[in-house]
Amino acid sequence: MVGVSALRVDGVTVRFGALVALDAVSFTVEPGTVHAVIGPNGAGKSTCLNVLSGVYRPHAGSVYLGDRELTRLRPHHIARLGIARTFQNIELSGTQTVEDNLLLGRHHLMRAGLVATALGLPSVSREERRHRARVREITDFLGLSAAIDRPAALLPYGLRKRLEVARALALEPRVLLLDEPVAGMDTAETAEMAAAILAVRAELDVTVLLVEHDMGLVTRIADRVTVLDFGRRIFDGSPEAMTSDPDVVAAYLGG
Ligand code: ADP
Ligand code: MG
């Protein structure tokens, strides 16, 4: 029952040499919520996503999706269990179209082998049509349909960031990990992304873990917030409680 499982980070520590990037950090992302992890630059937010997606292995602690331990699984295995992510810096295939970027994202969902594809069997084209139809739904959902045949590199910045989210959604995840999805966006682009994130949770029933530097977006769309500072968890609770928490205020004003 991956669909209704909590994502649990339990006592995770990551070190880079003498630097402790995450210091025994714990928090739980409840299914069906938008959960934000925020903190000043260098707080350990991206490191946290890298642990959750299997890019880094923690020195101590564990990560679970429901009862399933993810701690030592490889990134592709974690993706197959239903956890998809975006990166802080855009990582798209720039020369490929929007549609091809999304079809590439669905490769592991395609059953047809190379031989069947090469022979052009009817079952293959049926499957391909099904995938193309789903890709169209995802592009509609994220307001990318008008750009579906354009190379990713030619899209405006805000659309490229949405394409990254679309590509992660093309994996049909239960949990979506977003690393600073509105970084560098103007007010209008930020509002569109915020609406898209809320729609993903409400309409696609995908749990969202959102890493964010800025408090503004978080207080508007997150159900729960974990605040990191220098690798330590300094707050875990509602966005309302966060804004008046003395430790959080000090970390942000002091940083
Ligand atoms: P955030 O995303 O909150 O800005 P990061 O998780 O990227 O912070 O980084 C946390 C700390 O770990 C920072 O001090 C950063 O310089 C350091 N760090 C992150 N990744 C590496 C790495 N691969 N090698 C060495 N230090 C790293
Ligand atoms: Mg980061």
TrEMBL record:
GO MF terms, alphabetically ordered: ATP binding; ATP hydrolysis activity
InterPro entries, sorted: AAA+_ATPase (IPR003593), ABC_AA/LPS_Transport (IPR051120), ABC_transporter-like_ATP-bd (IPR003439), BCA_ABC_TP_C (IPR032823), P-loop_NTPase (IPR027417)
SMART domains named among the record's database cross-references: AAA
Residue span(s) of domain ABC transporter: 7-255
CDD domains, alphabetized: ABC_Mj1267_LivG_branched (cd03219)
Pfam family of the protein (one): BCA_ABC_TP_C
GO CC term (a single one): plasma membrane
Entry keyword ATP-binding: yes
Record has Nucleotide-binding as a keyword: yes
Keywords: ATP-binding, Nucleotide-binding, Transport
Listed name of the protein: ABC transporter ATP-binding protein
